[in-house]
Amino acid sequence: MAELKVSPFAGIDHVTGEPNEPKWLKDAVNVDIDRFGGMARRPGMTQVLAGISSVYGSGAVGALVGVYQGQLVALSLSPVGTTVLGNVSDDELWYTEVNGELVFSGMDTLSVVRGGSAVALGIDVPAAPSVSASGAGGMQAGTYGVCTTYVRTDTGEESGASHVVFVDVAKGGGLSVSSSGGGGGLITRTYRTPCNGDVFYHVSDSTGALGAGDRLGHVCETRHLVRMPGGKYLGLWKGRILVARGNVMYMSEPFRFGLHDPRTGFVQLPKKITFLAPLEGGIFVGQPDGVLFIDGPDIMQAKLVNTGASTPLPGSSVIVSGGEMAMDNIDSSQKYAVWLSERGYAVGKPDGGVVEPQASRIRIPVGQSGATVLHDRRVLSLVS
After folding, report:
1. Which pTM value belongs to this model?
2. Residue ranges for the chain with pLDDT beneath 50
3. In 3D, which of 43, 47, 41, 36 has the Cα closest to residue 11?
């Protein structure tokens, strides 16, 4: 009997009608196709730990991390075990690495692993201080404004400013300021205006009596800012943390990842966001029926472009270095966005262009959610 050669294969093609070229498969179950077109039966696996979710390989932590029994853990496979990094209330987390630290977010958290433990990013805005006029202080007669912030003693991270309290002071009088305080590891920083002024200057890293002898220091830079919220599809773009909540993309202040400006630090999209993939030239944003691109040098000058890409699988985007990709017209020095769609994998370029190399031969149902990883120069997606 003549020998029939069945490899190498170029992949799957279940769109093109018969006769199909021999190099394409119509279907393959429990079969791996390597980059050279060779086939091998997929090996079985043994479960070693049940109930762990949101797994991520972290270079900053030096281990796999994930959510296990309500805790963020570092996972060891040999021997199998976990090391607790902190408690979390989210079953689903997203990760990114910033300045050698692992940052993670869920709908109820935005945190960072620091010194082997998970700590919150950002500080809640303090309540408005209690401010009253006093009889001594040597101040000019007029109106004075006071606000406070919280500051971490270990990192210097500062919260947004409290609501402002204005008080009228008689000639020669002063101010008495008190606050509920921020608890362990936080100090209360006090700012005030000059007489009848509207700019707030640092006067003390505590509360108490204020008077004419106060040295007016730096301007309060965190007025009108609040704690950065958590959300889905955590990313980093031009020094800003990005998350999605519903159809809104929220952004931190540049290089102040725990602070958010609720007046300008967001972009409202037409429909619910299904992934975020930030690149140098802009941000790919998944939608239930396609993909948009936020194009511009910064968010204040950006425009929204419809890429024409097909429906993506929610949560399936990953950032890939051009050096890992074997495609034409790829710059190895650039990064690209890759996601799974109803027409196979799509590649988003730094300028906002999208290539769907499998569109002519693949149609797949888009699932409810998924995840994509790069492993051994291959892109793998889990669909649910």
Report:
1. 0.88
2. 1
3. 36
C-alpha–C-alpha distance, residues 304 and 327, integer Å: 27
Tell whether 277 and 374 lie within a shared domain: yes
Does the residue 220 lie in any domain?
A: no
**Total number of domains constituting the chain:** 4
Specify whether 110 is located in the same domain as 153: no
Query: Cα–Cα distance between 30 and 9 in angstroms, integer?
Result: 15
Q: Which tokens in the block code for residue 94?
A: 């997203």
Inter-residue contact 191 to 201 (CB < 8 Å) = yes
Its domain, for residue 180, covers 130-210
Q: Does 94 share its domain with 57?
A: yes
The torsion angle over the Cα atoms of residues 306, 307, 311 and 316, rounded to 10 degrees, is -110
Give domain status of residue 333, yes or no.
yes
Beta-ladder partners of 56:
65
User: Is 287 a member of any domain?
Assistant: yes
What backbone torsions phi and psi does residue 152 show, to the nearest 5 degrees? -70, 130
At 6 the pLDDT is 63
pLDDT digits (tens, 9 = 90+) for 230-265: 999 999 999 999 999 999 999 999 999 999 999 999
Query: Do the beta carbons of residue 127 and residue 281 sit within 8 Å?
Result: no
> Which backbone phi and psi does 371 adopt, to 5 degrees?
-150, 150
Distance, CA of 261 to CA of 122 (rounded, Å): 13
